[in-house]
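Tokens for chain A. Residues wanted.
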């Protein structure tokens, strides 16, 4: 594949987003000592809460939304349980639902906010580096 093939993709925004997402994921996983699956699940639950007003997701929902097969359901379940336990849980467990549902806890929200903050910073850094003007004004606030 040569450079003409890349230019013909004509989806610069998507390529930029993919590059920024990979960089931000790597940084956030190291900062919060998370696995990629953990981060994916936190972002999926956060997105579900923000976009669809459905703050609770079950393990089955997470298996479907992460693209894992049903045979990996145990792996997802174990990671969700690990994220909802401990001194600083990332997820809240809601036993009053059948099946058990999970929502983002305080520390999970901190991860999501950090991911958003870094995405804005890296996106603008990349656009400046590549010579594109940023169409967004970025303000980073300490929360």
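Reply:
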């Amino acid at each position: 594949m040569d450079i003409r093939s890349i230019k013909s993709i004509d989806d610069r925004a998507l390529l930029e987003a993919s590059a920024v997402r990979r960089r931000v994921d790597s940084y956030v996983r190291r900062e919060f000592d998370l696995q990629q699956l953990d981060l994916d699940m936190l972002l999926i639950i956060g997105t579900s809460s923000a976009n669809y007003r459905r703050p609770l997701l079950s393990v089955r929902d997470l298996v479907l939304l992460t693209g894992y097969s049903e045979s990996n359901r145990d792996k997802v379940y174990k990671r969700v349980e690990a994220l909802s336990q401990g001194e600083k849980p990332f997820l809240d467990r809601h036993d009053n639902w059948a099946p058990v549902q999970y929502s983002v806890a305080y520390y999970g929200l901190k991860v999501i906010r950090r991911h958003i903050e870094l995405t804005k910073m890296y996106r603008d850094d990349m656009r400046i580096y590549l010579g594109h003007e940023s169409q967004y004004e970025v303000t980073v606030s300490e929360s």
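The domain at 11-130 is CATH 1.10.10.10 (Arc Repressor Mutant, subunit A). Residues 134-141 have pLDDT under 50 and may be disordered.
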